[in-house]
Design goal:
By secondary structure, the chain is an alpha+beta fold. Among the domains are: 207 residues, tricorn interacting facor f3 domain (Immunoglobulin-like, Sandwich); 134 residues, Orthogonal Bundle (Neutral Protease, domain 2), CATH 1.10.390; 79 residues, Sandwich (Immunoglobulin-like). Helices cover 40% and strands 22% of the residues. Strand 15 and strand 16 form a beta hairpin. Helix 3 packs across helix 4, helix 5 packs across helix 7 and helix 12 runs parallel beside helix 14. The radius of gyration is 28 Å and the shape is globular. The N terminus is likely disordered.
Length: 893
């Protein structure tokens, strides 16, 4: 058996030094517009064993000098550095010293260095933006943009900002001091301690209070032309109401009000349910103009992509309300789960992200019960996790991680969404109050330290009296999840569990895990909890008139009913909750893809939902249909028939909802209107296309109110799909000129809908085709943080996905150079660009292209892409004929 102990797979620093405090001083930031800075870091540490050298993490930093000061009793010894050796692949610097450094409990390592304010959204970096009001005179700028400076250290990029021991279990306290222009603002994790004039005219030096003990990846600072909106918690912390602020560059602060309104309530809510007060004296949220992720939970200074924290009632699409509320909750959950208690090593990242995801939804539900938050989680989060975890190339929730390049790839749907799904399953089984009590005990026991999955299980077992490791270890440490297949007999059912693979070719070696499965049997008399933890079991006393497994979709598994039972359930929708309906549709679609069932029963089931009124059920219907359409998009007969099927299904609801938003209309009705208008237009509804084109023309010639904010995405996409070069150019111009926070994202997503790649009516026969124009625009005009947005639409568009892949092959070196500076960006771009092919020829071409390349940093994603395409290709070849037969028999083809 392979050695999977942490020491066997981790590539960690030598265990010679244990840091206790970092005193960081930064100065000369971007002098004369040059993107560099000077720094000194003094690291108080214990020298655990004598050594002649010290190895720290460092990348893209230049060490000017270093020395170690050792204090022993009443003597002090200073040992100078004589050489620095850089190991670039391992992101380390080894400092050799003039003499032996003795073991000591009181030493200080002093390093003077120079850093780069890069534009890769990692380390201490620069973000460009165009100010909406005149900026402070000292703000660095060029002909086109102004710049702010901020940090992004998770997972392993503190080492880009200052030399450090950059591993999550090497916790320390931090003292930060930064020199900056007097007319700008600097923020860090803690409140200001002092402000004094610098020796340099026009500059000031700001010192911050010492942080609690924490991991390097949670340290943060930012320098810029900032302003803020402020509120206070209702609860008192150390006798005071806590100040909560949302910071933006000048002119945008009012758009932070929506996030602020949520943030202070969420801090109070988490303090209450965890039984631990928010640990810091302030909570700041900062909008950053260029950001690789959605947000980052730096302790006391959470940073966000602008679309995840800013919202303008006058110009924003209402769907971003949901995003802002949830992301704010997710990041604030980390202030306890991740920051106060941190995973011991990155292999247990799910302890941070899975829990923050679940409790983020919990807080959103608390503040917005009218949003049906848990059905949204089920429809979006669980379905996405199922998709990735049904591949052979998936990974267990708890996965061995070697080093920095490995870490970023597991910030994925398994760690976040499968992690949160199994937490939801366990919380449902134990009862939410007991579950949260166990979580509170876990946090108290490990506060300001590091913990493991076993530590969490122990706390939950103690509170619940159940053997939580026995229930949960297969879910955490094994890959995949089960499909529960139902066989009906008079008065009883038999259930079997086996691994669910989207390729449908489960081999004995794939199917070694037996999961604990909470069956949740729903009948007319109520719901009954049944634990299923063998490969096969018989359940007696079944009411044949109505039953359903996995009540409220609480369990992370698929259910495969006999086709006759699925048909019966499709006529009993009044007995099903929103979660149950999503469960039936999602499972039927997935099992058709895997070959456990066929597409015809899925379509028969969906036909029963034509009178549905719930937005989230419709979201699952449209999502499941979109997958079928995508897989069979090359078959014109099937493709046209599926469009006809979709339009017949949704037309009555589209007509009933219309285009007008009533002033008192609820949030989800507005979302449903946007969803179905877009679906109708993209599937060829002539009435919808005509109205979308009318509104688009009026908007393009200057009537800003012609398109409702929440319909911009639908109207733009419909017009780009059918409007050729004129519509494409208009949306591209909208990207350049929009002042809406979400306007650029909306425009980029729409541009990927191009179909007339070369419009026959173009007046200029030499004009570049639309795909080439968009790809060139993505290469030179679109910020790196946003390149994945049009790529996702192009990759999903059957008219453009092959052209996109050809472009990637022909331009690989410049793409790799640009996007690979932040491997998160390149990894995401490749996945979204390539995962939607449905033919084995392209899969082989992709595999051959990358075969001889160094793919570290995105190798897991290439495996996901390969498995996804193979599964889709198998589905297409297996189901095309019976699907077309059904469509013909039902007058759709």
């Amino acid at each position: 058996m392979a050695d999977t102990s942490p020491a066997s797979y981790k590539d960690v620093l030598p265990d010679t030094i244990k840091p206790t405090n970092y005193a960081i001083s930064l100065s000369d930031i971007a002098p004369g517009g040059a993107f560099t800075y000077q720094g000194t870091v003094s690291i108080s540490a214990k020298i655990l064993k004598p050594t002649k050298s010290i190895t720290l993490n460092s990348i893209e930093l230049k060490v000017h000098s270093a020395e170690v000061i050792v204090n022993n009793d009443k003597t002090q010894q200073t040992i100078p550095n004589i050489d620095a050796t850089y190991d670039v692949p391992k992101q380390r610097v080894t400092l050799d010293f003039a003499g032996d450094i003795p073991a000591s409990s009181d030493a200080v390592i002093v390093i003077k260095f120079e850093g780069i304010l890069n534009d890769n959204m990692a380390g201490f970096y620069r973000s460009k933006y165009v100010p909406v009001v005149p900026a402070a005179a000292s703000v660095v700028r060029d002909a086109d943009n102004h710049y702010m400076f901020s940090t992004q250290f998770e997972s392993c990029d503190a080492r880009r900002a200052f030399p450090c021991f950059d591993e999550p279990n090497l916790k320390a306290t931090f003292d930060v001091e930064i020199e900056l222009p007097e007319d700008q603002v600097v923020l860090s994790n803690m409140p200001e301690k002092s402000v004094k004039k610098s020796k340099t005219e026009g500059l000031k030096v700001v010192t911050f209070e010492r942080t609690p003990i924490m991991s390097t990846y949670l340290l943060a600072w930012a320098v810029g032309d900032f302003e803020y909106v402020e509120a206070f918690t209702e609860r008192k912390y150390n006798g005071k109401n806590l100040p909560v602020r949302v910071y933006t560059t000048k002119g945008l602060k009012e758009q932070g009000s929506y996030a602020l309104e949520h943030a202070h309530q969420i801090i109070d809510y988490f303090s209450e349910i965890f039984g631990i007060d928010y640990p810091l004296p302030k909570a700041d949220l900062l909008a950053v103009h260029e950001f690789s992720h959605g947000a980052m939970e730096n302790w006391g200074l959470v940073t966000y992509r602008t679309t995840a924290v800013l919202f303008d009632e006058k110009t924003s699409d209402a769907k971003y309300k949901n995003r802002v509320a949830y992301v704010v909750a997710h990041e604030l959950a980390h202030q306890w789960f991740g920051n106060l208690v941190t995973m011991d090593w990155w292999s247990e990242l799910w302890l941070n992200e899975g829990f923050a995801t679940w409790v983020g939804w919990l807080a959103t539900d608390k503040l917005h019960p009218e949003w049906n938050v848990w059905p949204q989680f089920v429809q979006e989060g669980m379905q996405t996790a199922f998709g990735l975890d049904s591949l052979r190339s998936s990974h267990p929730i708890e996965v061995p991680v070697k080093d920095a390049l490995d870490v970023d790839q597991i910030f994925d749907h398994i760690s976040y969404l499968k992690g949160s799904s199994v937490i939801r399953m366990l919380a449902s089984h134990l009862g939410q109050d007991k579950f949260l009590a166990g979580v509170g005990n876990y946090l108290k026991a490990h506060a300001y330290g590091n913990a493991t999955t076993n530590d969490l299980w122990s706390a939950l077992s103690e509170v619940s009296g159940q053997d939580v490791p026995k229930l949960m270890d297969p879910w955490i440490r094994d890959i995949g999840y089960p499909v529960v297949t139902v066989t009906e007999e008079p008065g009883q059912i038999s259930v079997t569990q086996s691994r669910c693979l989207s390729t449908g070719d489960v081999k004995p070696e794939d199917d070694k895990t037996t999961w604990w499965v909470p069956l949740g049997l729903k009948s007319k008399s109520g719901s009954k909890a049944i634990s299923f933890n063998t490969k096969k079991e018989t359940i007696p006393d079944i009411d044949d008139s109505f039953y359903k497994l996995n009540d409220e979709y609480a369990g992370f598994y698929r259910t495969n009913y006999p086709a006759s039972r699925l048909a019966t359930l499709s006529k009993q929708l009044d007995l099903l909750s929103i979660n149950d309906k999503i469960n039936l549709i999602g499972d039927a679609g997935a099992l058709a893809r895997s070959g456990d069932a066929q597409t015809a029963p899925l379509l028969s089931l969906i036909e029963g939902f034509s009178a549905e009124t719930d937005y989230l059920v419709w979201s699952q219907v449209i999502s499941s249909l979109a997958t079928v359409k995508s897989v069979f998009s090359e078959d014109e007969n099937i493709s046209n028939a599926l469009k006809k099927f979709t339009l017949k299904l949704i037309k009555p609801t589209v007509t009933k909802l219309g285009w007008t938003f009533a002033p008192d209309e609820d949030h989800l009705t507005g979302q449903l209107r946007a969803l179905l208008i877009q679906a109708a237009g993209l599937n060829g509804d002539e009435d919808v296309i005509k109205e979308a084109q009318r509104q688009f023309y009026a908007y393009a010639v200057g009537d800003a109110s012609a398109i409702h904010n929440s319909l911009r995405s639908a109207v733009f996409q419909i017009n780009v799909k059918y409007g050729g070069r004129a519509a494409y150019n208009a949306v591209k111009a909208e990207w350049a000129n929009t002042t809406s926070i979400d306007g650029k994202e909306t425009s980029l997503r729409a541009l990927g809908r191009i179909e007339d790649i070369k419009n026959a009516e173009d007046e200029d026969p030499l004009a570049p085709n639309l795909l080439k124009d968009l790809l060139d625009f993505m290469a030179s005009g679109v910020p790196t943080q946003d390149v994945h947005t049009p790529a996702a639409t192009l990759g999903g568009n059957p008219k453009t996905r092959l052209g996109l892949w050809t472009y990637i092959k022909e331009n690989w070196e410049p793409l790799r150079e640009r996007l690979g500076k932040n491997m998160v960006v390149l990894d995401r771009f490749l996945k979204l660009s390539l995962q939607n092919f449905s033919d084995l020829e392209t899969e082989a071409d992709i595999a051959a292209f990358f075969a001889e390349k160094d793919n570290r940093g995105y190798d897991r994603t290439l495996g996901v892409v390969s498995d996804s395409i193979k599964g889709r290709a198998s589905y297409r070849l297996r189901d095309a004929e019976p699907l077309l037969e059904w469509l013909k028999a039902n007058q759709y083809a």
